[in-house]
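[Discussion] Sanity-checking designs against the backbone

I'm trying to build intuition for which residues belong where. Below is a structure token string of 394 positions. I'd appreciate it if someone posts a full sequence so I can compare it with mine line by line.
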């Protein structure tokens, strides 16, 4: 029996139209479950009656004439999502991976298998998902072949240490994850016919001399520096992905992820967001490396996950930057955290680590144009949600 699709519905105010062809939907697709089946059927029927509309169409259906059949509803564009699909997430118990698993289940996936060796992930990140019969956590090191059986429709490869603290300590594990882990993901995708999305990183740009960073920029990376174990592992992984795509016909996607933050970050992972938030909550001084003039951009995790989902469902095979282009200095970020927490000490500087990038800002034109994606959660709102989480764990 064919399963009915779960539908993602976007607000009509941002649907591209003849009068507003450049409009970009700023809000993540949301599965609206409160509506009755009859109401959803009416929505789907109206959308599919419009010229050019069909189930799973990658282009928005034209708006229906009205939403009178469902009082208070102000949505028009309707597209299919992960309904009925079995999805595998390498690194699914990690910070980003756990949020992605949540989103996939909410989008109606038939099954979500999180594969994680819990090296930097945590079972607690997905414990609440265990109540859903569609979710499964498999403890496994992806650098070893995976013997899971059954179909796989989409595979997200997020498995890798991702903070400077982690990949300095786990340098060999980081290299193996980028090489063997990625190869095993690609071989599984080749075997099952799945789409394989590789989570790459802005670190492939190194310490950039092109600003902001566009996907065509080949980077300025020190292949023997202390950060190279992560940078080069991710660069090699991208090469491997494109090799499997070009020579073996594997359906691949590459997301270059910029600084991301939100609940479930590890308190002691060494990244600036948990470091500053924990210091502010404890009334400690802010530790800034260098003079604090280096810049970063911070994307809230829900926005990032929405970009990953859109990319996986697209047919875009070239790399796509996913990040928030709002740039600020590290000193400015420390003051933003101070305001949000309502506390914190003075700024204390330490020497800048070797290879630390001076600037970082994504050009997201490709994501906007090809995916209709742009981050919507501002820093103040994102920090408030993140601080609420950290108050419970500090």
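Best answer:
Here's mine. Compare freely.
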């Amino acid at each position: 029996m064919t399963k009915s699709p779960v539908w993602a519905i976007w607000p009509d105010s941002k649907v591209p139209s003849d009068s507003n062809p450049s409009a970009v939907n700023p809000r993540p697709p949301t599965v609206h479950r409160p509506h009755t089946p009859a109401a959803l059927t009416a929505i789907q029927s109206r959308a599919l009656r419009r010229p050019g509309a069909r189930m799973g169409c990658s282009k928005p259906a034209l708006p229906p004439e009205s939403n009178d059949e469902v009082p208070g509803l102000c949505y028009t564009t309707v597209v299919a999502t992960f309904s009925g699909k079995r999805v595998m997430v390498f690194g699914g118990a990690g910070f980003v991976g756990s949020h992605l698993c949540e989103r996939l289940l909410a989008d109606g996936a038939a099954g979500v298998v999180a594969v994680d060796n819990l090296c930097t992930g945590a079972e607690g990140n997905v414990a609440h998902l265990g109540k859903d019969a569609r979710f499964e956590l498999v403890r496994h090191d992806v650098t070893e072949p995976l013997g899971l059986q059954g179909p796989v429709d989409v595979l997200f490869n997020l498995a890798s240490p991702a903070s400077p603290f982690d990949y300095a300590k786990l340098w060999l594990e980081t290299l193996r994850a980028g090489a063997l882990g990625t190869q095993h993901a690609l071989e599984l995708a080749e075997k099952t016919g799945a789409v394989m999305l590789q989570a790459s990183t802005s670190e492939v740009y190194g310490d950039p001399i092109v600003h902001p960073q566009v996907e065509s920029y080949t980077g300025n990376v020190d292949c023997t520096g202390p950060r190279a174990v992560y940078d080069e592992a991710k660069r090699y992984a991208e090469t491997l992905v494109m090799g499997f795509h070009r020579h073996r016909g594997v359906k691949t996607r590459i997301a270059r992820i910029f600084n991301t933050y939100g609940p479930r970050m590890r308190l002691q992972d060494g990244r600036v967001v948990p470091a500053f938030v924990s210091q502010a909550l404890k009334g400690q001084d802010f530790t800034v490396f260098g003079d604090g003039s280096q810049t970063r951009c911070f994307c809230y995790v829900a926005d990032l996950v929405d970009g990953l989902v859109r990319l996986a469902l697209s047919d875009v095979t070239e790399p796509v930057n996913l990040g928030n282009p709002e740039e600020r200095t590290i000193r400015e970020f420390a003051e933003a955290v101070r305001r949000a927490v309502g506390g914190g000490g003075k700024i204390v500087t330490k020497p800048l680590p070797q290879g630390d990038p001076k600037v970082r800002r994504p050009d997201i034109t490709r994501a906007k144009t090809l995916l209709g994606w742009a981050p919507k959660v501002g820093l103040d709102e994102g920090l408030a949600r993140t601080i609420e989480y950290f108050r419970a764990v500090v």
